[in-house]
Design goal:
With 159 residues, the chain is an alpha+beta fold. The protein is built from three helices and seven strands; from the N terminus they run αββββαβββα. Helix content is 25%, strand content 23%. It has a seven-stranded mixed beta sheet.
Length: 159
């Protein structure tokens, strides 16, 4: 009887661990929207920043001129379906490690200033915000791919 019980426990453990899907450190939580705000670095103050919303229905550009907080954004300009198709996967690319570093700013230690992006998203009811420069040299390895993908998405949305 003990052998049967041991075999049953081993079989259950083997089935449950083999059914887990590898995540490569990417969160599989509910991320239904993301706001990306761009900043130009040392550009003159007159240079506007751009804000974009990516959600499950499309990609949108903010059309307001004031940016004190998210409540004043107006994402009423829908970008093309082609642009959305190129950037929508960003919603599912957030590294799990970033969820433990909410509010953190990632900068390259080797540059005086670099353009970058602010990313805000809500996952399972919690708002997360990160700031990431486009210059990713010196950033943690788990941040670099996501920061590069955010920069690439911004370049697509700006076109």
């Amino acid at each position: 009887m003990k052998l049967y019980t041991l075999f049953t426990v081993i079989a259950i453990a083997a089935v449950t661990t083999s059914c887990k899907k590898p995540t490569d450190g990417i969160t599989n939580r509910n991320t239904s929207e993301m706001i990306i705000g761009t900043h130009p670095g040392f550009a003159p103050a007159a240079t506007p920043s751009h804000y974009y919303l990516i959600n499950n229905t499309g990609a949108y550009e903010d059309t307001t001129n004031t940016k004190p907080n998210v409540q004043q954004y107006k994402f009423d300009y829908k970008l093309s379906q082609a642009k959305y198709d190129q950037v929508k996967s960003l919603l599912n690319q957030i590294p799990e490690a970033l969820l433990k570093e909410n509010g953190k700013s990632y900068r390259s230690p080797n540059t005086a200033d670099c353009s970058g992006n602010m990313v805000t998203t809500v996952i399972d009811g919690t708002t997360y915000t990160w700031s990431m420069e486009d210059c990713t040299e010196g950033m943690p390895d788990y941040v670099k791919p996501f920061a590069d993908n955010v920069s690439a998405a911004v370049n697509i949305l700006r076109q």
